Records
---
Amino acid sequence: MTDHKLLVRRAAVLGAGVMGAQIAAHLTAAGIPVDLYDLPSDDKPRSKIAAGAVANLLKLKPAPLASKDLAAFITPRNFDDDLAQLEHCDFIIEAIVERMDIKKSLYEKIGPHIHADAFFVTNTSGLSITELADVVPDALKDRFCGVHFFNPPRYMHLVELIPHPGTDGKVLDLLEDFLTRNLGKGVVRCRDTANFIANRVGVFTMWSTMHHAQRMGLGFDTVDALTGPAIGRPKSATFRLADVVGLDTMANVIRTMDAKLTDDPWHDLFKAPDWLGKLIEAGALGQKAGAGVFRKEGKEIKVFDPETGDYRATDYSLRDEVKAILAIKDPGEKLAELAKCEYPETEFLWAIHRDLFHYCAYHLAEIAESAREIDLAMRWGYGWNFGPFEQWQAAGWKRVADLIQADIDADKTGVKAHLPKWVSEVDGAHGPGGSWSAAEGEVSPRPDLPVYQRQYQPVRLIGEASHTGQTVHETESIRLWTLHDDVLIASLKSKMGVIDTGVVEGLNEALDKAEAGFEGLVIWQPQGPFSAGANLKAAADAIQRGDYDSVRALVKGFQEANLRMRYAGIPSVAAVRGLALGGGLELAMHASRRVAHLESYMGLVEAGVGLLPAGGGLATLALQANADTAAGDTWPLMEKRYKQVAMGQVAGSAMEAKDMGYLRPEDLIVLHEHELLHAAHGVIRSLTSAGYRPPLPDRTIPAAGDVGIATMKMLLVNMLEGHFISDHDFEIGSRIATALCGGEIDRGTPVDERWLHHLEREHFLELCAMPKTQERVGHMLKTGKPLRN
Amino acid sequence: MSDAYIVSAVRTPVARAFKGGFRNVRPDDLLAHALKHALAEVPGLDPGRVEDVIVGCAMPEAEQGMNVARIGALLAGLPDSVPGVTVNRFCSSGLQTIAMAADRIRLGEADVMIAAGTETMTMVPMMGHKVAMNPKVFDDNENVAIAYGMGITAEKVAQKWDVSRADQDEFAYRSHQKAIAAIDGGEFTEIRPYTVTSRVPDPKTGQVREIETVIDTDEGPRRDTSPEALGKLRTVFDAKGSVTAATSSQMSDGAGALVLVSERVVKELNLKPLAVFRGFSVAGVPAEIMGIGPIEAIPKVLKQTGVSKDDLDWIELNEAFAAQSLAVMRTVELDPDKVNPLGGAIALGHPLGATGAILAAKLVHGLQRRQQRYGMVTMCIGTGMGAAGIFERV
């Protein structure tokens, strides 16, 4: 075992089920080849089951593989013939069926083949790690623990790390480092208690929601309207989530809680509602069965009504009074209003929050090191905006505690459990020094593992201290700031990183300041996506007024700022995560380098709103296609680039973005989103240390010209005749071709960026003037969805 | 004027493009194989007497560029003195070569000619490796159909000639059924098997391992297809159309070759000819409905040769698409029982420029086996043409 870092040269995943195969897929994204094991087949090939699981990875949505090419790095294996191969693996994770006897016999079988420095862990979600450790061969015990991924493992940030009493502490530190740095996960250390943390709280919440919904007689559609984004949780809310998970699985989990948590004060209430049993009996198991709580009938989605035992039309509307309460900004005031219980909906919402807070406070000492673990687990494993303790604290710690206590005193909670004493002894669960540990009776600071030094701006919980750097310059659109004095950071302030005149001005200001006094410039958004694109609304308003001059000025200003960044005397880095679309991507394309989180979704999607990329995106693609094929034929790459823009394709990962040319070969992909800023600083420093020189300006390339345009039009005309695109799509596609190919000029004529920018701009403006483009823009602004006209 | 006698006609099996048995076999090697067998089957013929080797190829570039005819002839062991020329009229190239070879004999300019065709769609894609459209195509609407893919033209034919999706599916299904029956009945007597040698690294021994595979059967026909399965497929060329991948010809690799001689050589060597080539016609139609080309070419060739439609016993109508095949059959009133009795390109594949030679070989052997007299090979041609040639068993 190395002291400072777990080096995983090769990994093995035992069990090629849904979780096992997807964990293998994610390991390949981290650059680790994987042996994927499952049972042998009687006929050849013997590893058919594992091979089938690999093939299935290519079909699953959302895609478990960051790039289809990665499937080749998962080798199908079987438990009978290939165990000797385990000796090459440094990290072995078991994800087979949740049966103690079967796991025991597998552990005995593989024990002799695992090398002395390898880590052996289990992905169990239901069994006790301590009991499993009893059946782990002695030689492996100190390197054994639970590493619990959430489904789907590529996309869910949470991994729970669960030791047994014999796990070496060093092993846990190395694993936490590896899971964070290499796999990009958010690690939460858990105690070895039933369902660990996220599922313990998550399933309790699900049960409590069902219980109170039934009690208040609320329809499942109403419950989903109340328990989704309205209270800071994902759109799948409660019952859509249950359908996705599977109602049979739900019932099983509730049964497990019933069997395992016999000492839990809420135990007597852990009964699945009657309707759940009836639906399961009828085969309505949820999404996988085509029907569950919800059922799709033709185009309509209907909801089960336990009163009638039949499905009815959904109704997600809420009464105005309830909507008004949900709209209250101040969390404390909102919760107090809910606690008045004036309506069934508010009584329900108060009850599920009260029970959640009560349950978490009551069990904190038993299930988690501190309140931090519970809140992070719910954010990362269940997609909640805030964890339970944060919500409580935001609403006023003492005020909420009193409300809960009042309900306990009035016997409204239905359980014989009091609020633990510590609740009244603290001002909140989180503070500048850390989070409350009920087990230790003191504040527990954040872990100080070296890997967390790489997270310059980690997730901070409500109440925790956050370090937001030194502001250098700030406007309504942009904040220029610095963390380490040497690098200037520019952060767009709108939620979606929208680019407008203010941003362009801010970018120029940033370049002025960076050239004057910094080593380089990083563009990074503290929250949300890198950038969803240009501000359509501002452009649409100007077009509405017939003010094309201001649109032209806006476009030209953006092009020039982008060029300025490209040729600036200091290096720039776009640190991308999430969406980088349209103008947002063009901004990133003009930085000296890009560092991108694996989950970056990049595309020039302007065609969807009837426009074309006019921030230098097409010019950049043409220049790059030429540079990338200097020794050969540029055309095949030009055609590929053309198709991806004309069809508005978006890369499904940073790896795919490399293939699409939106990331360059020298750009870096980062697995952990909170390490982006660290990586960006590193790139600036490495460029500076090598004596940064900007690219030479005014380079010319031979245009694809009239023949290029005609050949692209050939693709379009076939799609038009085949009714795959509309006349306006043809119009847009022709103009994209024209701008990309340098216009209707002789093939091979030298053109430069300025000429290509001129074409982008003029065709952009001409499209703006077309009613069908205006319809597209209007539709996008109104509905958020593209219009095909 | 001497008649042009076909004294030998052979072909390779037709393999599926990209994943088939010929995926690593070059078009010049396929051609050399066909040429060698065609010549070997003419007893007593000195190869040095071949006046010219005319080879059809629809995309004569890359592996099949550089005058593939001459290269194939040399690889086949023909003496340096025998020349070679590659001709291109897209899908009729392999029939065009027979017409050109026959003409030299009929004019008395040559006694022995070889007509052939070769194409690997695996190595050279349809339209070639580099497409570069003439901008003038889009100047007005008149010539825009030059830019149409073949599938779009098939859709236009289906629409204009009112060929239903169900009829196309049924036609495609029957093509497969007929081809499978022909394979099982041993009807493809013109096939000369090809042994593919592939070389792969063997990490265990550190040696290069050679694997020999004999390809002796056409790979296209599917035993597992059904009208229901075909009915479920989505259209590929037109979102609102009727043409599917299964009602289009398959992309394939293959070659065919025929030896044609004058009456003098027949007598001199005491040969038993398979057939006489009676005549050939080609005609132009609008590019956007290229599939109906045979509608113009068939009456033209019948008139020219004086053979009546009813005299025809066997018609090889290249199944570029079910839609155009049915439109042609209905318009010219061809007897469906006489058309493609052994299945067509939808089942058996369509290696573009080789198809004419392959269909001719299939036809003349068929006429011999069934003791029938007149046969015709006809096809539509991209950018709007049709070709037809008449063969008579002797």
---
Amino acid sequence: MSLETSNIVLETKDLGIGYRKGSTSQVVANGINLNIREGELIAVIGVNGAGKSTLLRTLSGIQPGLNGQVLIDNKQITNTDPAELSKNISLVLTEQLISKNLSVLELVALGRQPYTNWIGRLSRNDLKKVMHAIKLVDIENIRNKKCHELSDGQFQKVLIARALAQDTSLIILDEPTTHLDLYHKAYVLKLLQQLSRETKKAIIFASHEINLALQLCDKMLILKDKKALFGKPEELIKSNSLNDLFPGHLIQFDKESSSFKIK
Amino acid sequence: MLNQRKYSIALILLFLAVIVTALFNISLGSVQIPVSEVTSALLGFDVEKDTWKYIILNYRLPKAITAIVTGSGLAVSGLLMQTLFRNPLAGPYVLGLSSGASLGVAIILMGASVFGAAFASILLSEWSLVIASSLGSLLVMFAVILASVRLRDTMAILIIGLMFASLTAAIVSVLAYFSPASQLQQYVFWSYGSLGNLSWEEVYILAVFWLAGILISIASIKNLNSLLLGEQYARSLGTNIKRNRFMVIIATSLLAGSITAFAGPIAFVGLAVPHLVRQIIPSSNHITLVPAVIFGGAILMLICDTIAQLPGSEYSLPINAITSLIGAPVVIWLLVRKRKFNF
């Protein structure tokens, strides 16, 4: 089954994102049209303040859009009940956890909450999914450690495992590579690529790692001047969409090597 | 698997400790009654002396039950507030419940000098303190719930609770300023807290509120666990943040409000027990923490009450002083010894 004919997981139609204050609204970006299919890895890029986080919050249903539609598994996101939505979308955020006193296993197991009973008891099937998620991101050796004992790179993997355990068709990550060294940045993004291939989940993440994203992603969404450009990396490069992403006096995009270079 | 088995053993031990401390609590006092006699009296068998049986069933058992209910109820409210407000300093009274209660009681006890003597004579009956303190707590509780429905930010509720506390404290000090010494003393005695003055009737009423509060707390366990990740994650896991917040506030109000009404504003237990328990059972999972805190609160309160009645003597000390005198050094010792703060 080729990617182009597989099911659409997330779709936006003429979506406008931003903030409402009383009767006025502050538009962050407008006219966003994208569709994300099973097994695709999508990067959202843009300068600081371009609206990456706002977009991700709108796509995950935390924040309402200003206009247009977000469809998740063909359902309008605004009409979907949070309990139902939790079976469609899982998140990895930059928000600090309240308690890092949970063990890795306990934290990953919290991903099963949408499926557990009133008191959160894990069934055999839940445990199986938790162990599978732990295996997929290769953290079996640290599964009994407390989260505060982990390095940033390990902890990011744990959060990704938690999202996997939630067993949703879409995973949204907000800047999963911040605070990581170059190796771990590449590692995490490569892991996301692998996971999208193996699990057929759609994965969308915001990142400043444009050079890495260009090499690993199936498609990219560039937020610039309140507009969104969506397409495959090579198409975006060909159409010069990356050239004026940053102010031009310091760095510029080099088409030969598909990366940004210092002038 | 999830360390659950190891923790269930700890929970069973804690439960046994509740029973043992309860037996000692009933056995010790101005009159010493052997533990074996206490056990047979409680199981309905004959006891050596009839007076012992009378003392146990009419004085010491209701007091022990009150200690269990207040200790566990306040400890659970403390845990709920600490998780809800993501703040290790939160306790059952951060919502201003005890301030509301003390305002109600202060108006009853000291209002006479301000509003006239006729006012006081109408209100001073056996139940007046309980009713006044409940009304005070209810007033503050409704104000906080009203605010919590309108507010999006959970932290703002914490500040509002604190504001209500200083507001009521200010009114109480104005009342105290104009009150004669005898009434002031009555108020001070109330604020010391007391477990021993409850009739069986009152114990039943308190127990019903306690049960309701505990059941709501147990029903919130799953949502509280999701809150450990933060509100955004909790929402993405399907938790209804506002409904959960409402449930937690109701549970705390039922528990802390009814306890304050019947036993006075008992300090420290609610704040300290969750920390004590986290040092013994290093888990953040509420499935383990809620029962552990219930047992831990009961144990601490029973021990404190046993000490407060100064076994073998005619005197007893205010329970509020003992909870802090015993509890504070234990918390400090545990934190220093482990050098690590579990939250």
